[in-house]
């Protein structure tokens, strides 16, 4: 059980996390929210019973764990404004002038721990998480990373929050977060692009929009679930539906002629490079 937690930013991702925690009956004993939007604060107060603040201030910062859930481009200003509240840096003794050590969980894409530590202070225990949009319906997948050996409690708390919105795994190197961003962070957009293309093609073949949508969504869902439940790798599952000279073989031959695997590799490697580039841009600030 988390004793005290403050969310900084109460938008889509933070609401998904808090909604998931509430559903899983893992709400913290004391919940605080900092968000400049009065509408967001009202929702968090009504829905989750959070004590809400428009700005970081001593009471808001007192929680043992913080979740930083603002947009990446808002992160630097947020961290500097928390750090400016020096009085709130010590969770056990808010009057102490010693910087305290909070568990700081950031969900911001592409913001490295070195940047957070530079803006917020080096005394905290940082955990970086990369969830993806299906977290909004409790079906996300999140990679977590910490740049120092964490004690079990920090690790359990961070993972227990992420487990409320789907599955999670730890990566050992921060550079792997660029790969995670390219695979699962941006991944839903690739699947949506595939859906768009398949639905368009289905309609070109004479199906109604509604039928095309149902067929495509259920095919992607069914194939994903089959891949998860089967002991066979995707290549073998593909071979099982591909008879020589049949319809699937005809379609796959078109994919291969266009270097399908090469296209996917180039796209993911471009996304990973862009993630690294955006993080470097932050570090230069
Ligand atoms: N949405 C996703 O599926 C997803 C997936 C993976 C990772 N993430 C990460 O999650 C983070 C949040 O994304 P989101 O989609 O939830 O964004 P969002 O809906 O825009 O929520 C961010 C919230 O933070 C508020 N905010 C801005 N500056 C603040 C400050 N200084 N102090 C406190 N609150 C502040 C914003 O208020 P204003 O609107 O007034 O600025 C807004 O309510 C991002 O860093 C993103 O990379 C999101």
Secondary structure: elements and pairs:
Blueprint: E1 4-8, H1 12-23, E2 30-34, H2 38-48, E3 51-53, H3 58-61, E4 65-68, H4 72-84, E5 103-106, H5 113-120, E6 125-130, E7 140-146, H6 152-163, E8 166-170, H7 176-185, H8 187-204, H9 209-229, H10 234-240, H11 247-257, H12 260-283
Parallel strand pairs: 1-2, 1-4, 2-3, 4-5, 5-6, 7-8
Antiparallel strand pairs: 6-7
Helix pairs in contact: 4-5, 7-12, 8-9
Notes on the structure:
The chain is of the alpha/beta class. The chain folds into two domains: 4-175, NAD(P)-binding Rossmann-like Domain (Rossmann fold, 3-Layer(aba) Sandwich), CATH 3.40.50; 187-271, Orthogonal Bundle (ProC C-terminal domain-like fold), CATH 1.10.3730. It contains twelve helices and eight strands. An eight-stranded mixed beta sheet has the order 3-2-1-4-5-6-7-8, with helices on both faces. The structure holds NADP nicotinamide-adenine-dinucleotide phosphate.
Helix content: 40-55%
How many extended strands?
Answer: 8
- The CATH topology of the largest domain corresponds to Rossmann fold
**SSE string:** EHEHEHEHEHEEHEHHHHHH
State the end-to-end distance: 37 Å
Helix tally equals 12
The shape is elongated
The average pLDDT value, as a whole number, equals 92
Q: Runs with pLDDT <50, length 5+?
A: none
Main beta-sheet annotation: 8 strands, mixed
Query: How much of the residues is beta strand, in percent?
Result: 5-15%
- Derived structural class: alpha/beta
Order of strands in the sheet with most strands: 3-2-1-4-5-6-7-8
